Amino acid sequence: YMNGKLICSVNSAASVTALGSLSFVNLGAGMPNSNYYDFIGSLRDVKFYSSVLTADELVTTYGSEAINQVKLEVCEAIGADAQALTATLTDNVKLPTTGSNSATITWESADEDVVTSNGIITRPSNEQGDTHTTLTATITVGDKTEQVVFQITVAKAMSDAEKVEAVKQELSIRNTDPITGNITLPTENMYGVTIT
Questions:
Q1: Looking at the DSSP assignment, which residues form a beta bridge with residue 147?
Q2: pTM exceeds 0.70 for this model
Q3: pLDDT given for residue 9 in this prediction
Q4: Largest CA distance in the chain
Q5: How many CB atoms lie under 10 A from the CB of residue 26?
Q6: With 70 as the cut, is the pLDDT of residue 34 above it?
Q7: pLDDT score recorded for residue 171
Q8: Which residue in 66, 79, 163, 194 has the most C-beta neighbors within 10 A?
Q9: Cα pseudo-dihedral 78, 82, 83, 84, rounded to 10
Q10: Which is higher by pLDDT, 30 or 93?
């Protein structure tokens, strides 16, 4: 199987009991001095089961675990809490459209006036207060699809007083050791506050 899809199969008379008293098993490699080629790549997860999985069980297990991995990747990408599925935005966010395990991700916003399906936010004024909506990510891995709903808060813009305070906290003058020449005084900032 590759990415949850059957590639090929072969009957084998080998069994686990045939290993006898061997204290090790090679993963991704043949037995020492065998004619099998070693696996070229890396193994991220390894699991052992007490019985052989059916084709349906394998696809379901792979799909669920693969989608859970993509969920974590999406949460990290948009700065969301992975447990509560909540995120607070103060700027536009890049919404991922692909993930590991060949996943595809599509997005839908419940209110395009708050945040679009492309991650563009409309930040409310300080007087309006925070706005809220949901972003739904539809994750598809192989034949399995799952929707994840994120509760999104778009934070209100800073008040003028908050902007001034933020600039004060960030204000600094470089090279204040014994001054022997001209120094550059900061006049610009990201908040649009005038400094004289």
A1: 138
A2: no
A3: 82
A4: 86
A5: 13
A6: no
A7: 84
A8: 66
A9: 0
A10: 93
